[in-house]
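Q: Got a minute? One more chain.
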Amino acid sequence: MQKRFHVYRILLTTGEWIEDVRIEGPLEYNFPGVAVSFMPVENRNGNTIVLNMFHIVKAELLEIEEEEE
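A: Always. Here it is, folded:
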């Protein structure tokens, strides 16, 4: 079975763009409710970034990658 990673370019409320954020599954599936406000994600270099759902202004889907499990 293959895992699907969605790669995003995310705009924060600070005006900063975070490039190449890889998330397993669509972004909206990772924030199921207000109780989950922090989400650790990684960029293509493997660096972990913790996103807060209240700081995301816009997320542009760049591509969907598939990997074997």
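A: The CA atoms of residues 20 and 44 lie 6 Å apart.
Q: Perfect, thanks.
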